[in-house]
Design a protein that fits this description.
It contains 11 helices and 16 strands. The chain is α/β, with parallel strands linked by helices. The strands form 2 sheets. A 9-stranded mixed sheet has the order 3-4-5-2-6-1-7-8-9, with helices on both faces. Strands 10, 11, 12, 13, 14, 15 and 16 form a 7-stranded antiparallel sheet that branches.
Length: 370
């Protein structure tokens, strides 16, 4: 008697990189370079228009309208207005066998795009959130004009603030004392906006596919979150918790704790955090120590009021068994998050005796507005 065919195993979520940057920053130049990189093999790239990308020497064939196959092994799709439709069309072509399987997706946004709606789409859409998983936001910043762009355009500030990788373009054109001074100010501004982002110099060849794509929330080689890279903890290490300089109301804040939190308290902490303060949470990411299984960290990743389903790792990836959460906040005092976290741990700090313990009503924490 022949065995019944086994059901098809569901495909693991496909990691997605969002490539953003303001008009003229150099996204198209970077993308053209990446498309010729061997490390981009088995990647699907969603771009705004094929005409802006030099594909002639890479083009193999048109699969269907809006989808082409490249000799490098990439799939390129054009986005005509609706990102959700483009991502769904890509999945249909994959599931129906019209294109070869791909290992990751890169989405290039328009220069004027606020990246938050794109992040929301990847995390909140009920079907796309099952099939895709956000890996990182990569932002291209113009070394010559970046400072003026940040001063003039709030979208550019958000693009930098939410970045996991910042690609600095045109740094080779810094050729005068005035430009060097302006570039030093830009670097300080970027450090304040995104202290945990890894910075790469495109002119020095640092922006390779391996450096740009492997940001780490989802590692396609192991199918587990690569928290050690993803947190970039060295950039945010120091005291138990650290708030970094702000720009246009944006502040990076890290929270660390040796104390484990109960799973029910953790769920309520997240629910109150995103329900009451979602609009102010540009990014939240990190690992959390849970009392019921302290040797297995929980991975947290969210933007505004939308969070990925939490993932439990088999072990702490770097041997550091502490809660480590990184927040990118907009118009919000980090003390509010610290107070809420303390309340759910039952902590009353000596310098803040008015903060309540977990057994009290967490909604009564001074300074918190729900």
């Amino acid at each position: 008697m022949s065995e019944a065919p086994s059901p098809r195993r569901p495909r693991p979520p496909i990691p997605v990189t969002v490539l953003t940057g303001f008009l003229g920053a150099g996204k198209t130049t970077l993308l053209n370079r990446l498309l010729a990189d061997e490390g981009m093999r088995d990647t699907a790239v969603l771009i705004n228009e094929f005409g802006e990308i030099g594909l002639d020497h890479l083009l193999v064939r048109t699969v269907e309208e809006g989808i082409v196959m490249l000799s490098s092994g990439c799939v390129c799709c054009t986005v005509r207005g609706d990102l959700v439709s483009a991502l769904e069309d890509l999945l249909r072509a994959l599931d129906n066998g019209r294109i070869e399987p791909f290992a990751r997706v890169v989405i290039e946004t328009t220069g004027l795009a606020d990246p938050i709606p794109v992040i929301h789409t990847m995390m909140a859409h009920p079907y796309l959130a099952m099939r895709y998983r956000l890996d990182a936001v990569v932002t291209v910043v113009d070394a010559l004009n970046g400072l003026a762009t940040l001063d003039a355009h709030p979208e550019a500030v958000k693009q930098a603030a939410v970045a996991d990788r910042i690609i600095v373009s045109k740094a080779d054109l810094i050729d005068s004392p005035e430009r060097r001074d302006a570039f030093a100010s830009l670097e300080a501004r970027l450090a304040a906006l995104a202290p945990s982002a890894i910075r790469l110099d495109a002119a020095r060849g640092e922006a390779t596919a391996a450096a740009v794509l492997a940001a780490g929330l989802y590692d396609p080689a192991t199918k587990t979150p690569d928290v050690a890279r993803w947190l970039n903890d060295e950039a945010l290490s120091g005291s138990d918790d650290a708030a970094h300089g702000h720009d246009d109301g944006i502040r990076a804040f890290s929270l660390t704790s040796d104390q484990a939190m109960g799973s029910a308290a953790f769920d309520m902490f997240l629910e109150l955090l995103r329900g009451a303060h979602g609009p102010h949470l540009l990014r939240v990411k990190g690992v959390v120590k849970i009392a019921e299984f302290p040797d297995r960290p929980v991975v947290v990743h969210g933007a505004q009021h939308v969070f990925h389903p939490t993932t439990v790792l088999d072990a702490w990836p770097d041997g550091d068994a502490r809660t480590r959460l990184v927040f990118i906040l907009k118009d919000m005092d980090p003390a509010v998050i610290r107070a809420l976290h303390d309340a759910f741990l039952g902590i009353t700090r000596p310098d803040q005796p008015d903060r309540v313990a977990l057994t009290d009503n967490p909604l009564a924490i001074p300074g918190l507005r729900f």
